[in-house]
Amino acid sequence: MNNADTNMDDDLVVKYLAGEASPAEVLLVDEWVAASENNRKIFNDFKLIWDQSPITERNVNKDDAFMRLQNRIKRTPTASRKTIIKKLKPAHWIGLAASVVLICTVLWLTFNHVYDNGSVSFVRIDSRNKVRTQTLPDGSVITLNARSTIIYPYKFTSNFRPVSLQGEAFFKVAPNKAKPFIIKVNDVTVRVVGTSFNVKSRNGKTVVIVETGIVKVIKKQNSIDLNPGERVIVTRSPGTLSKETIKGKLYNYYMTRQLVCDHTPLREVVQALNDIFGAHISIANKQLETLPITTTFQGQSLDEIVGVISDTFKITVVRKNQQIIFK
């Protein structure tokens, strides 16, 4: 297998550094590192972060597993750190920042859950089937949609405020320029110092929509700044990030029970209805997809909303089994 310049799973690299990888996983990482200079450089960057992470900022006692593992790693000769630091480019630091967040998240889970046998230095919240609101140690407020999970430190003691998210949440971040608020969601990193925005990650697609302030969204070596009323959709496919302006507020229905449409294209309303109600609505006539809707739906049933859309645009609605088709 040719591993030259191929992507390596970040979790596996962390397991390798922690000495927790299986023999097969160790062999896989070793082969990947040996396959190219670029792979070796990426690995050394990971190790550099690991070695230089201040233990005191991680709120870890000397007796715990993290200290033992740090000592274990330091016994292994490392590459020339000064040389590596000089060669790092700004774009590379963005990727390293994302790796730092990932490493921290994995460390919380691994070292506190597994090694400390129940000692709690992080908080995990699963919203399950309901919307939950949680206030973080810095005063930031997070509203979790159903089927979502968030993990964060019991205290923000590092130089940034790292949070891991699965699912969907609305963040109202307490301002603190000295400690950026960093969210890790799949392979996407969101960085802010104080603002409000929505992050949704389902089925390999991550959508970030900004309500106030400025948000930086990072994926690998690409990044983009979002302003209020803008969003970015990030998929698993490689490529640059591009933003677009949103019309209305369809993203926060789980908090407000409102669908605010402001010249919103019909296709976006249909997508929102499918997500919210678990419906199967499709538009058979492509000319209908861009029809603009300006209204607010609040507390109405799916049938009532479909009726309003049909009456407004004189659209024929065909129902077939569970399907609703606009023609």
TrEMBL record:
The keyword ATP-binding does not apply. Keywords: Membrane, Transmembrane, Transmembrane helix. The chain crosses the membrane at residues 91-111. InterPro entries: FecR, FecR_C, Ferrdict_sens_TM. Gene3D superfamilies: 2.60.120.1440, 3.55.50.30. Residues 130-216 form the FecR protein domain. Pfam families: FecR, FecR_C. It comes from the Bacteria. Residues 259-325 form the Protein FecR C-terminal domain. PANTHER family: PERIPLASMIC SIGNAL SENSOR AND SIGMA FACTOR ACTIVATOR FECR-RELATED, PROTEIN FECR. This is FecR domain-containing protein. The lineage of its organism: Bacteria, Pseudomonadati, Bacteroidota, Sphingobacteriia, Sphingobacteriales.
